[in-house]
Amino acid sequence: MTQSLTPSRPRLTLGTRGSPLALWQAHAVRDALVAAHGWSPGDVAVEVIRTTGDAITDRALAEAGGKGLFTKELEEALLDGRIDLAVHSAKDMATQLPDGLHIAGYLPRADVRDALILREGASLDDLPPGARIGTASLRREAQLRRLRPDLDVSLLRGNVHTRLGKVRDGVFDGTLLALAGLTRLGLADKASAVLPTDAFLPAVGQGAVAIEARLGDAATGEQLAPVLDPATGVAVSMERAFLTELDGSCRTPLAGLARIEGGEVSFRGLLLSPDGREAVEVERRCTISEAVAIGTEAGRDVKARAPRHILPD
Ligand SMILES: NCc1[nH]cc(CCC(=O)O)c1CC(=O)O
C-alpha cells in the first residue's frame, strides 16, 4: 500500500472576499485558530469567494443596493456547507442576516478611528476652501461637510490602494479611510492625521472583524470560542442594535461607537443629514448586560427626535 499524498482535509474552511483587506482578515482568523488550538496552518482552509459588491466599481454602493452585496455569496456558501465560517469587516455587514446564520463573534477590535490622507498638509485645518476630498462613505461625507462646509466633497470608489492612488495623482486633495484598514495593509504611514472620535465618529462595527456561522453548528462554535473577544462582542452588538433600530443602511449617514471602560459601557450615536447641516446625537452609559437594550433604546430616541426628511425610508 502506498501512502496517500493527498493532504489531510482541513478541520475548518473559512470563506472570504478576495480583496487584500478581506484576505488579511481571514488570515488573522486562521492564525488565531491555529495558535489557540496548536493546529498547523493547513488545518484551516481559506476559500476566496467573489461577491456582487466586488464587481461594482462604477456606482455608489448605496445606489447599487447596500451592504448585503458584499456578503450574499459568502452567506450562500455558508448555508450550503461549502464553508464553515465567513469572515467579514463588521462594518460591512447588514443588520438582517439570512435565516439560519448569526454572527458568532469578533476578533479583538483594532483602532476604531478614521484617518485623513492628504496630498499636502497634516490636518483638516490645512485644507484650503474648495479642496477636493473623495470618499465613498455617506457618513464620512456628512461629518466632513459638518466640520468643513467649504470643502468640495465627492464620491471616490475603489479599494484602499485605488483611493490612495487618486490622492497621490492629484485627482483628489485628500480622502478618509479607516485607520484599521490602512494598518492591516501596512499603510498606516499614509495617514496624515488620525481623527479623534469625539470630532469624527466611526461607523458601527469599524475596526472589528466579524465571524459569521451557521446557527446550531455547535462543533464549529466550540472551535471558534477561544479566538473571540467578548468585550468587542458587547460593544459591536450594542452599536448594531442602535443601527437596527434606525433601519440603517449605507443610504443614511449614521455613526455609532460603544466603548467598555471599567465594567461600564459608554455609547455615542449620530444621525446626520447628507449635507451635514442637521445632526441628531445621543449619549448613554450603562452596564455590560444592558448594552444591547440601551443600544436599541438610543436608536429609538434618535428616531423620535430626527427631522422626518433625514430618516431612512
Ligand atoms: N467599506 C470598506 C471597508 N470595510 C472595512 C474597512 C476598514 C477596516 C475596518 O473598519 O474594520 C474598509 C475600508 C475603509 O472604510 O477605509
Automatic annotation (TrEMBL):
Class of the enzyme per the UniProt entry, highest EC level: transferase
Q: Which InterPro entries match?
A: HemC, Porphobilin_deaminase_cofac_BS, Porphobilin_deaminase_N, Porphobilinogen_deaminase_C, Porphobilinogen_deaminase_C_sf
PROSITE patterns associated with the record? PORPHOBILINOGEN_DEAM (PS00533)
Residue intervals of the Porphobilinogen deaminase N-terminal domain: 12-220
Q: Which residues carry this modification: S-(dipyrrolylmethanemethyl)cysteine?
A: C250
Pathway assigned in UniProt: Porphyrin-containing compound metabolism; protoporphyrin-IX biosynthesis; coproporphyrinogen-III from 5-aminolevulinate: step 2/4
Q: What else is known?
A: The porphobilinogen subunits are added to the dipyrromethane group.
Quaternary structure note: Monomer.
Matching entries from NCBIfam families are given as: hemC
Q: Which family does it belong to?
A: Belongs to the HMBS family.
In Swiss-Prot or TrEMBL terms, this protein is called Porphobilinogen deaminase
UniProt organism field: Ancylobacter crimeensis
